Structures are given as structure tokens and as C-alpha cells.
Amino acid sequence: MAEPLVVVQDVQKHYGDFHALKDVNLTVDKGEVVVVIGPSGSGKSTLCRTINRLETITSGTIMIDGKELPKEGKGLAELRAEVGMVFQSFNLFAHLTILENVTLGPMKVRGMKKADAEKEAQALLDRVGVGHQASKLPAQLSGGQQQRVAIARALAMHPKVMLFDEPTSALDPEMINEVLDVMISLAKEGMTMIVVTHEMGFARKAANRVVFMADGQIVEEATPEEFFTHPKSDRAKDFLSKLI
Ligand code: ADP
Ligand code: MG
């Protein structure tokens, strides 16, 4: 039985007069991998940021595992920890070592002891293939390695769902696959994932569903096979013709 994990209901988001999300409804089940695709400015990042409450919503509800995200205050940090987020730009702390980048959240938010946090962080860094870099600073790593550290850092919070916002867009081409391979293995292990990406190979290999956004709306949803071979809307057809 499908169990909903992320439920976005009737969400509207305005930036001043600008209507960035128009009545967005999206349910992501436990273990499901959803790829969000669409032209620049269509609201993909805004959707991710509202799910993680980095942005407040104008109206509607967002639930994670049956609990509504509070708008602010107590409980927000804990609930936010359930939603791991990986950005295009890695956002590692430049003055902290790789290991410290991964242990910081677990020690501060999850209250883990340093030794335990370090043991778990090292295991996660090994898992994403950068365990040997643990004592280095982010700037000493390649972009692909830094992004894998960012994934380990998010996983260290034991999130229920992982959001990826164009995780490979800032990478040199030869580093894209090393990041996508980590994401594919996470998907295979059953992680619930929402991934904004234009990497069709990833979508075909790992996604259960593709969600196409344009102008702040979800225009269509389909399996990757259906969407890439038989897009329904003119906007999706137009978008795909420019992507290839
Ligand atoms: P995408 O990720 O699909 O490229 P975004 O979610 O970043 O799109 O942006 C959607 C629209 O919202 C864009 O037109 C963008 O200019 C606008 N927007 C995003 N963030 C802000 C903001 N902080 N203030 C005003 N407008 C914004
Ligand atoms: Mg974006």
C-alpha cells in the first residue's frame, strides 16, 4: 500500500505581486522518487524551498509524514531535519573540514555525542566515496566530491525525504555521473526523493514519476517513459524539443 510521505495541498506562493506557485498539489509516497522538470523560472526551486520551509507559503498546507510543517518557531528545526536538501551550489561550510561539515547538524540538532557523530559521518563519507578526504577543507575537493559531501551531510540528519535542486547543474560534465550514481543507489535503497533535474538518464533509471512544471503550475505528471516519449501538453513538447 502506498503511504503518502510528502503532501503538498492547494499551495499558493506569492513574492509580492508575483504568483510563483499556483495551486500546487503533489503527493509523494514513501520510497517514491519524483523528478521535477520544467523551464527556468517555472517554480521548481520555490516548490523545494517551500517543502523545506526555507520559504513560507501564502496559503495551503504541506505535510511531512502526517505532520503539518509549522510556519516558524519550535519544532521547525526538527521537522526541517526530516527533509534533507541538496542545492546546486553545495553550500558546504568553507572553514570546516569535510568531517565537521557532516557532524555539525547531528551534534547541534540531533544532540549526538562527538565520537558517535564522527563515526556515523565517516561511514556516510565512505558510502559516497569521499571517506579518504574527511580531514580536508571543501575547497580542496572537486565539485563532484563536494556535492557528494553535501549528500552525506543531509543523510546524517536521518531525513525522511531528500530534496535535490539541480544537484549536477554546477558540475563539470565528467563529475555529473559520480553524483548521479550516489543518487541512484539512494533511490534503489528506498529513499523517498524529490529531484529537480534535467538529467533524463537519471529520470529514466531512478524515477517513478516525472512532474512537469511551467509558470508556477504542475502541468502534467507521468512515468518517465510516458513523459519523454509522449508528453501530453504543448508546453511539455516544446520544453523537451529544446532540451534534446
Ligand atoms: P525555477 O527553479 O523553476 O527556475 P524558481 O522557483 O527559482 O524557478 O522561480 C520561480 C519564479 O519566482 C521566477 O520567476 C523567479 O524570478 C521568482 N522568484 C524566485 N524567488 C524569488 C524571490 N525571492 N523574490 C521574488 N521573486 C522570486
Ligand atoms: Mg531553480
From TrEMBL:
Superkingdom classification of source: Bacteria
InterPro entries: AAA+_ATPase, ABC_ATPase_HisP-typ, ABC_transporter-like_ATP-bd, ABC_transporter-like_CS, MetN_ABC_transporter-like, P-loop_NTPase
Keyword ATP-binding: yes
Cellular-component GO terms for this entry: plasma membrane
First-level EC class: translocase
SMART domains, A to Z: AAA (SM00382)
Domain ABC transporter: start-end pairs: 6-240
Keywords annotated in UniProt: Amino-acid transport, ATP-binding, Cell membrane, Membrane, Nucleotide-binding, Transport
Coiled coil: none
Pfam families according to UniProt: ABC_tran (PF00005)
Membrane association type: Peripheral membrane protein
Subcellular location: Cell membrane
Reaction equations catalysed: a polar amino acid(out) + ATP + H2O = a polar amino acid(in) + ADP + phosphate + H(+)
Family under the similarity heading: Belongs to the ABC transporter superfamily.
Name of the protein: ABC-type polar-amino-acid transporter
Species this chain originates from: Microbacterium paludicola
